[in-house]
Amino acid sequence: MQSKEHWEKVYTTKATDTVSWFQPHADLSLDLIKATAVSHDAAIIDVGGGASTLVDDLLANGYTDLSVLDLCAAALAAAQRRLGSRAAKVQWIEADVTKADLPAKRFDVWHDRAVFHFLTSAEDRAAYVQTVFRAVKPGGHVIVATFAEDGPNQCSGLPVMRYRADELHAEFGEAFALLSHQKEAHHTPSGTVQQFVYCYCRRIGS
Ligand SMILES: C[S@@+](CC[C@H](N)C(=O)[O-])C[C@H]1O[C@@H](n2cnc3c(N)ncnc32)[C@H](O)[C@@H]1O
Fold first, then answer.
1. Crossing angle between the packed helical segments 165-172 and 122-135, to the nearest 10 degrees
2. Mutational test site, ligand 1, from 14, 21, 70, max ligand atoms within 8 Å of CB
């Protein structure tokens, strides 16, 4: 099954608050974004945001230039339904991040929780990193969270890569400075625990 087909099936057959990656609030992501100290009109993108509630909390915290990118139309539609009229304040981008043609130097903050770890081919990971480098402003903030080295080896039934912080940073290379990293034990709706690692980097270069 192709990736898009897989995700459309997931988001049309399961309630968004029952999937293993569901968080009522993406607290650590929100804290990391706030800690960047970007202004409220900074351009922030949640890549593979799906039906995440992060966008709700970013809006509630006064951020005004928000984009959510996901290859799954059903996931984006679920988030839009939940937001109601507030959905109009967000730019919704239905695209595969490894092929997306995002504007150059558009974003101040790039956030990805549980998407990069699905990229099991070196080619896809390189395409992703190239897109981050192109779309994020020099000095921009990059927050990427994947399953940690002691996390599960599957997510949504698909094989994933697991990373230590230094390994995750190595995928991004010297054009990104690793400023901090931390682990999080995510409690799934079914009561299991999944170890995540969050890397916070800044894009360097011009
Ligand atoms: C495990 S879910 C995580 C969703 C969200 N980031 C969260 O933390 O709740 C993975 C999401 O990535 C999306 N996705 C998977 N591969 C993608 C790709 N190549 N490009 C864009 N989105 C992708 C899926 O549709 C799904 O919404």
1. 70
2. 70
pLDDT digits (tens, 9 = 90+) for 77-132: 999 999 999 999 999 999 999 999 999 999 999 999 999 999 999 999 999 999 99
Nearest CA to ligand 1 atom 19: 96
Residues with CB under 6 A from ligand 1: 3, 7, 21, 48-50, 52, 70-72, 75, 96-98, 113-115, 118, 155-156
- The reported pTM is 0.98
Among 101, 89, 54, 97, smallest CA distance to 72 is for 97
Nearest CA among 62, 74, 68 for reference residue 34: 62
**163 contacts 115 by C-beta, under 8 angstroms:** no
